[in-house]
Each structure stands twice: as structure tokens, then as C-alpha cells.
Specification:
Length: about 140
């Protein structure tokens, strides 16, 4: 389904949208290739290779993509998708995507290494000696006024 000057005559549509149509066709080709790749592996086989959080991400992206494509379909049929239940479904999916993102961010957050933290605090504290001198990090003593 490649658009070429032989297949589609420029007079069939306004010339100012030609570049947009070519870009749209290229995007459709990319989506088609991605779907073929995803469909080449069984869902169960794919899910077995993923952690539960990754499985949730895959499911959410899949359902969001499907609903987005339905949104585009409605628009091409002259139906306002903003007034269709698909809008609420997309919002619901986005809510769950944000929840999964929060969980992933918490999982990525660094854990507190108590030993390292106590060494950092201990070394950062000033400990005066009997002569009221302070040892700098380089080992030099400096007189405190």
C-alpha cells in the first residue's frame, strides 16, 4: 500500500496535504511492522519473560494503543471521539499508567545505606581536640580562633 504518483493522482486530493499523507502512510507502515513483531510471539511466551511490573506496563500500553486507534477510527468516521466513551476509557488507562509509573519510580529510588550514612555524618562532624585545633580533610592542622 505504497503511495506513488502512478497509484494516486495528485488531482484526487489537494496538493497541500500530499506531504502529510506520505508521512501518515509511513507512520502506518511503522505501526504495521511493530504489530507484526509483537504478534510473532505468543502473549503467554512474552509475559513469561517479563517481571510483573513490566507485564502491567505492556498491558497498559497495548490497551492504550488499541483505544487510541479506535479514537482515530471514530474521527475518520465523522464521530467526535471527545463525546464518546472511549475518552473516559483513555483517561482511566492513563490513571493506571501513572500508578504503575509511581510504583516503578519508588522501586528505582535509592535505598538508604545506613552504614554509609553514619560514616558520612561521623566524618562531617567537627571534633575539637585538647588544643582547640581542627584537622582538615588533607590532614593539616589549623588553629581555631
Amino acid at each position: 500500500m505504497k503511495m506513488s504518483d502512478d497509484d494516486v493522482h495528485m488531482e484526487d486530493y489537494p496538493t497541500e496535504i500530499h506531504d502529510y499523507l506520505v508521512a501518515f502512510e509511513k507512520s502506518l507502515g511503522s505501526v504495521d511492522e511493530m504489530l507484526k513483531t509483537m504478534m510473532s510471539v505468543s502473549r503467554n511466551e512474552l509475559l513469561q519473560k517479563l517481571e510483573p511490573l513490566e507485564q502491567a506496563k505492556l498491558d497498559l500500553v497495548s490497551v492504550y494503543t488499541l483505544n487510541s486507534m479506535f479514537w482515530v477510527y471514530l474521527a475518520t468516521q465523522g464521530i467526535n471521539p471527545k463525546e464518546h466513551p472511549v475518552k473516559q476509557e483513555l483517561e482511566r488507562i492513563r490513571t493506571y499508567m501513572n500508578k504503575v509509573k509511581e510504583i516503578a519510580d519508588k522501586k528505582k529510588a535509592s535505598k538508604l545505606d545506613k552504614g554509609a550514612a553514619s560514616r558520612f555524618v561521623r566524618n562531617a562532624l567537627w571534633e575539637p581536640n585538647a588544643e582547640n585545633e581542627h584537622t582538615t580533610k588533607k590532614g593539616k592542622k589549623r588553629k581555631m580562633d
